[in-house]
Amino acid sequence: MSLSEGDMAFARELFDDIPDLNTRRMFGGMGLYSGSTIFAVQLSDGRLMLKAKGGFAKRMDALGGDEWTFERKDGKQSAMPYWTLPDATLDNPQVACALAREALDALTS
Questions:
Q1: Which of 9, 79, 96, 106 has the most CB atoms around it within 10 Å of its CB?
Q2: CA 95 to CA 109: how far, in whole Å?
Q3: Which range marks the domain in which residue 69 is found?
Q4: Is 103:56 a contact under the CB 8 Å cutoff?
């Protein structure tokens, strides 16, 4: 499965206020960047996930985000440093962009 044009347009509109926003298709999904820094991904099923480390990962967990996990070929679980956006932010570009800016601050500090 790969993303529809509508899904990609939704993500671009949601994060329209992020400086130097650009996107790249990857693995059936899309990476969202501010300049050269990736701050989010959109998975092939349409889920939007912010890249989170340190205290920002804890904040995303507290907001009800789910960490991206997958099962490896050997059956072990692995996690990626990406968290789903809380549902309420998907209807509010101001809140979504505020979280994206927090993600970028955590990634660049």
A1: 96
A2: 21
A3: 5-108
A4: yes
100: CATH:
3.30.1460.30
Q: How many domains does the chain have?
A: 1
Write down the H helix ranges in 1-109: 5-14, 55-62, 93-108
SS3 of residue 106 by DSSP:
helix
| pLDDT tens string 14-69 | 999 999 999 999 988 999 999 999 999 999 999 999 999 999 999 999 999 999 99
CA 35 to chain centre: 15
Sign of CA dihedral 49, 47, 6, 1: positive
Question: What amino acid is encoded at 96 in this protein?
Answer: A
